[in-house]
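lol ok so funny story. i was supposed to be doing the assay writeup but got distracted and ended up predicting the structure for this chain instead. priorities right. anyway since i did it might as well share w the group, maybe its usefull for someone
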Amino acid sequence: METTVIPFRGLRYNAAKIDRLADVIAPPYDVIKAEEQTALEARHPANIIRLILSQPHDDDTDDENRYTRAATLMNQWIADDTLQRDATPRYYIYDQSFNAPDGKDYTRRALIGLVKLQPFENRIVLPHEKTHAGPKIDRLNLMRQCHANLSPIFLLYADAEGDVERIMESFTDEHAPEVDSEERFGSTHRLWCLDDAERNTEIQTLFSERPLLIADGHHRYETALAFQEEMAHTGLQGYGYMMVNLVRMESPGLAVLAIHRLLDNLSPDSITHAVTKLPEVFDVHELDTQAALMAQLEARRGKSPAVGLYTADDKYRLLIPRTTAPGQLDVMLVQETLIKEMFQVETLADHISYTAYTDDAVAHVKSGAGRVALLMNPTPVEQVLEVAMAGSIMPQKSTYFYPKMATGLVLNLLNR
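and the output, tada:
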């Protein structure tokens, strides 16, 4: 069974009606906070936020609600040419340039296309994290009304020789971007329409034998599978595909950040118990400063397991496990050994939160009792792929690909 990634007729904002694309794009729906939602709505009456995260009303009914309003608005924008569908199928090339929290400058290049939906057991599209029912129900209700992919999910593909990126580069070297937007949400945004039939055929062939790893969008992929089944009776092929951003995992533009674990609501006894037991499993090295701890972690990045611990007594500890299994992942070490065994946390939802920023993790511990921070290195993408290929699942928030991709550059209609 082969991987199918095809070009498509994207639905895009009409430049004749929208002066600045930066005013109508948004971050992914699941990272938008209430105050940011309000600001995005105020920025422009056609901001994509009104589709992906329509506000509920107190008098909502089964026939009139946030999902039906999103569909009505989308169809209105299509009717008045605020959104226009491209005349012919094509891929889209999406560049984000940004400065990451590690202080380095990156440009991440994605190919936007449609992937043929495959159940996970076919081992074509691979998950690496568990999902929860709530977000899937919400996105399914939206999809039932809009019959569209309003935002792409983020997939990774392996391409050691860089063949797909080389084809994209040959096109972008010859053509100016159709979108060249200023900084929004941590990056600039440029978009090319790759409407070259010969290049597109070559790209489609190159993907045919490559498994694809979900980097971000597990819930939406599973939702698309469920909606495909619901709409099978229509016979329309569009329901069998999903819009995706495809990024080469070997790309130097791929910035992967650590996601630190913050434990809350711990009893003094549980903290004392864990700290006392640390030397049974780890070589424990106390360090004077946050910078010294993070430097020690960075020195072991990708080489050997190591975890940082910060506690309210203002102590920084580097924890190096005395024994490790082959391929030991730091995130599994943290979840199983530290969180569950040593800190005796069973119900993670009641005690854990996450941040990619070390300063925030330390400040969190200082701002309240019963808190500790577990500071981590990023999970190497190669290890994520190995886990997924083996059919295993990693803990939630094992990876953080920075920054999030914008929503609103391209949409995909499923039923026409």
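The chain has a mean pLDDT of 93. The longest helix spans residues 66-79.
back to the writeup now i swear
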